[in-house]
Every structure is written in structure tokens, then in C-alpha cells.
């Protein structure tokens, strides 16, 4: 590990006890076992905002766990519309918002209503493995649109997207922006070109924007549905407070339906067929959006520091690997193929460095040889993760 001055510790973010992390039952630290450092699944290690804890505790202390009185939907519908207006200037309609348990269910329900077996769905690759697995399990034809690794970072090949949509007769584009796993944030110009392709080919756009609030300046998230009236009419937006506030287990996500027909189809379903959101999930999301912004600003300073540290160490100690500073998310996407390892890098890092990362074929075609590293942890844990990764991937000392 290269020598560096330790940063000023940030209380609540850098004082994590590893015994506490391992004692929790969540999969990130529990599954790998006591000898392995986990930097794989996309959970942050940090405690949730105090405002969220207080709101949940208050609901439990009041024994407020009965059936909620929400004749017109949960209060999150209005809260979502307000947050979109305040953050992005998007006049999202509260009456078009519906609650689900998580983002994967949101995607599956929209695909179920809007497509049938055999229908073609364009999707960026690499991509979030459960999204790709959903397309396979549901019998939809995934049409990969590979992200391009350039000297200036990861980019969508928009000409390839246009050609693939036309050639494969796609009905849907699943757009992940900010992008998991590359961390790319699409610009207004790129989004306008995608909107033109969607209009030209009459595509439904399912826009996963769950990482929107984890975007680093000067990059700026732009909701796809905010681009134009046409984009609004053909876009279904998926989001949740869970990524930006570390609330995965509350099981609460939101879908904003742009197409009238699709919203009518959704509302014509039996009301409980796809489950209902937990009132505690609503309480936690409200508290995060209402009182968690100061916590989130501090979070972003820590994540910004960590993403730069990952980039610095990789550049200094593993100069052959390719890595671009992510523009959003807390995930680093690392190309180890120039190392010529001869074995999957996830296995090498686990076996030699005692660090568990994600990567490889579950992220799509041509993802073998890549690693995804979650840097949402304390400075001390991140240093040990990076030490294990560089130890595992460094060439032998006698190598020429």
C-alpha cells in the first residue's frame, strides 16, 4: 500500500467497529465469514441517518403498526413529487406514483404489463445482475448495448443503440442512469439523443434512477422523464431512498408511470397481487427525504474521498488495470484483463487477498475479467480492502 496521510476521521462514517459489522445479520458481512473483508454487494457499511432511526423508533413506541389509512395511496406519492421538483426541477405527478417493495419488483411488474415472452428489450451492458437475470427468467430477449471504455471514461454507443433497437425490433429500453456498475452519469445531450431514438422507434423507457442522489459534482443527474412531454409520456421511472440512505431492508420503492395505458393496466390489477409496501418503509423514506439531507451531504464527502483513494491506489500500484473515476454511485468498475490472470479475478482476490468483490459474467457479455468494488465503508476498512486487492493482483516480483 502506498503511504498517504490518513484523512481526518469523519464521526459516524470512519469509526465503524468490525465486530459490529460482522454481528449484523445482513448478507454483506455475514455470508463471507470471519476472515474475509466484504466489498461486494451494494450496501453501505454506515449506520442509517439518526432521523430515520428516530422515526422508526417513534412508530414502534407508539405501537403504530396497524393498517394504514391511505385511501389515495401512501404519502410517499406527494413526497416523491416534491423531491423531484426540489432536486431536479421535474414536475412529476404525484397521482402517477405507485409503491412497490423494491426496484427489482418495480422492473418485473412493468415488464409483465408492457411486454410478453419473446419481446426484445435493449439494455446497457455491463449491468446490475438481477436486471439481466429478470429478463432471462421472464423470457424476454435481452439486446445488449455495450458501454464503451474510452480514454475519457465510459460512454454509451448511441449509434449502436439506434441500430440494435431497429434490427431487433425492441419494445423497451431499460436505462440505468446513473449507471451501475460503471458509475457513469449521462449528460443532457446524451439523454436527448436517447430520447430521439426512443421517439423514432416508439420505445417504452424504463429508467432506473436509484443512484441519482449519489452523483458527484460537477456531474448532474437529469431525470429522463423531465426531458420533454414526449419523454414523459413514454417513461416509467424507478427509484427509492434505499441506496442514498442505506435502507435496503425497509423494502420500499416507487414507480412513476408516464404512459396512460400502462398506468391503467397497473391499476386494473388485483390490488394486493403484487404486495403492498410496509408502513415502516414509508416512515423511513419520509424521514430520510425530510430530515436526512445534512447526513447525505456528509456521506457524499466521504464517498468522494473514497472513490479518489481507490483510483489513486489502482493507478499507483496496478497501473495496467483500467479504471475510471466514477461520476456517481459508491462502486468502482475495474478491468483486470490486461493482467492476463488466467483465472477469474473475483476468485483470485478472494483466495489471495481475503477480499470478496463482485464481477464477471453475471454483469453481462464481456464482463469476465472485471471487478466491482464497493467503497462505501470507513477509511480503515477501505485501506485493508485495497491492500488485499493489490496484493492479489500485483504481478510476481520476478516478473519482467
Question: Can you tell me about this structure?
Answer:
The protein has helices at 18-23, 27-30, 50-61, 76-88, 103-114, 129-137, 158-168, 188-201, 229-234, 242-245, 260-267, 279-291, 293-317, 345-353, 379-393; strands at residues 37-38, 97-100, 120-125, 141-150, 153-156, 172-176, 204-208, 235-239, 253-257, 322-323, 331-335, 355-356, 358-359, 370-374. The chain has 15 helices and 14 strands. With 400 residues, the chain is α/β, with parallel strands linked by helices. The longest helix has 25 residues, at 293-317. The protein is globular, with a radius of gyration of 21 Å. The strands form three sheets. An eight-stranded mixed sheet has the order 2-9-8-7-6-3-4-5, sandwiched between helices. The protein has a four-stranded antiparallel sheet with strand order 10-11-14-13, covered by helices on one side. The model has no long low-confidence stretch (mean pLDDT 96). Helix content is 40%, strand content 16%. It folds into two domains: 18-48 and 293-393, Aspartate Aminotransferase, domain 1 (Alpha-Beta Complex); 57-291, Aspartate Aminotransferase, domain 2 (3-Layer(aba) Sandwich), CATH 3.40.640.10. α3 runs antiparallel to α12 (279-291) and α13 packs parallel to α15.
Task: Describe the structure concisely for a colleague.
The protein is an alpha/beta fold. It is 40% helix and 16% strand. The protein is built from 15 helices and 14 strands.
Q: Report the biggest beta sheet as strand number plus sense, adding barrel if it closes.
A: 8 strands, mixed
Number of strands: 14
- Radius of gyration, taken over Cα atoms and rounded to an integer in Å: 21 Å
What is the CATH level 1 assignment of the largest domain?
Alpha Beta
Please provide the ordered H/E string of secondary-structure elements.
HHEHHEHEHEEHEHEHEHEHHHEEHEEEH
What is the total number of structural domains? 2
Please indicate the percent range of residues in DSSP E strands (runs of 2 or more): 15-25%
Tell me roughly what share of residues is in helical segments: 40-55%
How many distinct helices?
Answer: 15
Task: Give the terminus-to-terminus CA distance.
Answer: 21 Å
- Tell me the name of the CATH homologous superfamily of the largest domain: Type I PLP-dependent aspartate aminotransferase-like (Major domain)
Mean pLDDT over all positions: 96
- What is the SS-derived class? alpha/beta
Query: What is the 3D shape?
Result: globular
Would you identify the regions where 5 or more consecutive residues have pLDDT less than 50?
none
Amino acid at each position: 500500500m502506498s503511504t498517504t496521510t490518513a484523512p481526518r476521521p469523519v464521526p459516524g462514517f470512519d469509526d465503524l467497529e468490525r465486530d459490529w459489522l460482522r454481528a449484523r445479520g445482513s448478507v454483506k458481512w455475514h455470508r463471507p465469514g470471519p476472515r474475509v473483508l466484504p466489498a461486494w454487494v451494494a450496501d453501505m457499511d454506515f449506520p442509517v441517518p439518526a432521523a430515520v432511526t428516530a422515526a422508526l423508533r417513534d412508530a414502534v413506541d407508539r405501537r403504530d403498526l396497524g393498517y394504514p389509512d391511505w385511501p389515495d395511496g401512501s404519502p410517499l406519492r406527494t413526497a416523491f413529487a416534491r423531491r423531484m421538483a426540489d432536486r431536479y426541477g421535474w414536475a412529476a405527478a404525484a397521482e402517477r406514483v405507485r409503491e412497490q417493495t423494491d426496484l427489482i419488483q418495480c422492473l418485473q411488474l412493468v415488464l409483465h404489463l408492457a411486454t410478453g415472452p419473446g419481446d426484445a428489450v435493449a439494455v446497457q451492458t455491463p449491468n446490475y445482475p438481477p436486471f439481466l437475470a429478470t429478463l432471462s427468467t421472464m423470457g424476454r430477449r435481452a439486446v445488449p448495448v455495450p458501454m464503451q471504455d474510452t480514454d475519457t471514461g465510459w460512454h454509451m454507443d448511441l449509434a449502436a443503440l439506434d441500430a440494435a433497437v431497429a434490427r431487433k425490433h425492441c419494445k423497451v429500453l431499460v436505462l440505468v442512469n446513473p449507471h451501475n456498475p460503471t458509475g457513469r452519469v449521462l449528460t443532457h445531450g446524451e439523454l436527448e439523443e436517447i430520447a430521439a431514438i426512443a421517439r423514432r422507434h416508439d420505445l417504452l423507457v424504463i429508467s432506473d434512477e436509484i443512484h441519482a442522489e449519489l452523483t458527484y459534482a460537477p456531474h448532474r443527474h437529469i431525470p429522463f422523464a423531465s426531458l420533454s412531454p414526449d419523454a414523459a409520456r413514454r417513461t416509467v421511472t424507478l427509484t427509492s431512498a434505499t441506496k442514498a440512505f442505506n435502507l435496503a431492508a425497509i423494502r420500499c420503492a416507487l414507480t412513476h408511470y408516464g404512459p396512460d395505458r400502462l398506468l391503467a393496466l397497473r391499476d386494473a390489477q388485483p390490488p394486493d397481487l403484487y404486495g403492498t409496501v410496509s408502513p415502516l418503509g414509508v416512515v423511513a423514506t419520509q424521514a430520510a427525504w425530510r430530515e436526512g439531507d445534512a447526513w447525505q451531504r456528509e456521506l457524499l464527502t466521504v464517498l468522494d474521498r473514497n472513490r479518489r483513494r481507490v483510483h489513486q491506489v489502482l493507478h499507483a500500484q496496478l497501473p495496467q488495470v483500467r479504471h475510471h473515476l466514477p461520476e456517481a454511485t459508491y462502486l468502482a468498475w475495474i478491468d483486470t484483463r490486461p493482467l492476463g490472470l488466467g483465472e477469474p479475478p473475483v476468485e483470485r482476490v478472494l483466495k489471495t487477498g481475503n477480499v470478496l468483490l463482485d464481477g464477471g459474467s453475471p454483469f453481462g457479455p464481456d464482463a469476465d475479467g472485471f471487478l466491482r468494488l464497493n467503497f462505501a465503508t470507513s477509511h480503515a476498512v477501505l485501506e485493508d480492502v485495497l491492500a488485499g486487492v493489490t496484493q492479489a493482483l500485483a504481478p510476481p516480483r520476478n516478473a519482467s
